[in-house]
């Protein structure tokens, strides 16, 4: 019955997308409450080399399915640096030539010619502008910079004028979308079974988002940043395309429902549950529970740089950061302690005590953000260092005061809920299959083909 129910859910989502009947979400554009999360993009050794993959190796081969099994997803493309929804200028070209459609008619743009569209373009008088490449080719957006340079997209680009600028939406089949999500979220050089696990997670996540519009005002399901899944930051790659193709249509289900398959970079040897985001366990979220990421030989990631890390923060520096991040003047800090822990030993509450008062911070993301800012370094277990950022690497840590320094010792990189991408890769190196990887990180789930 669960298989049938999950199949019907997946089919229902497909039909909704094909028919264009979308519901409206209450909280567009983010993950409030239980979805509070940090960046899901995999950082390898403190920051992957963006664009390092050879885009030429990808060719133009992307996953193909029948339209009924491959619904369209609508992705809001943000500006360079993912800073804004609107663009002052949109510049597009295609090596195959462009076809422009608007309420004022249709026109063709020669191959290779760059088309510039601003908010006051006369063609907006007829409504939205839609661009597609002749012969199903790619559309290159020259007015956006991503890790791969100027990104290219399949499908259709829809342009809408607003007072702030041009809204740019990419509408394309979800399987083609995944071909540019996978290399943006996990290095294409990773093991095939790990890439396949990532593909199933990313597809499940996408299907859940396609149940409604994250941006109802633009009829867009998601954007292309870490608010959802990173899309188009790296060009499609042959190995990640293969992972999408070999898992085509496969989603992860729990008790008959497609799951929201959260993932992150590196574990500390254990994962945690949604309690880290303030959500108590219930019958529907039991697939997100704390598990051991290892076997009889030890933790799978024990030799990786981010498995363990340490930060020594001067008292003055942390006092300043805490004041800024907590928006409360606590004075010079005298004590910082983890006052509550959750599954996997994750910090659920940290109390900052200073000469002028104290403040308690709850939930994984807010705790990590409380320590965020510049002024100190994170030393990984291999001796390499990374500059401190807006978030502490993870909420799996201890803290103690030693003289005029707070010493934080932690492990892992990311929120710790769901699948560790590096853990998945290490499992694949040991011969574990996509299914075995997913069953470890999402206990009780099963892979269903829609």
From TrEMBL:
Residues 164-253 form the Sporulation stage II protein D amidase enhancer LytB N-terminal domain. Residues 36-69 are annotated as: Disordered. Keywords: Signal. It comes from the Bacteria. GO terms for biological process: sporulation resulting in formation of a cellular spore. One of its GO terms (cellular component) is outer membrane-bounded periplasmic space. This is SpoIID/LytB domain-containing protein. It comes from Mordavella massiliensis.
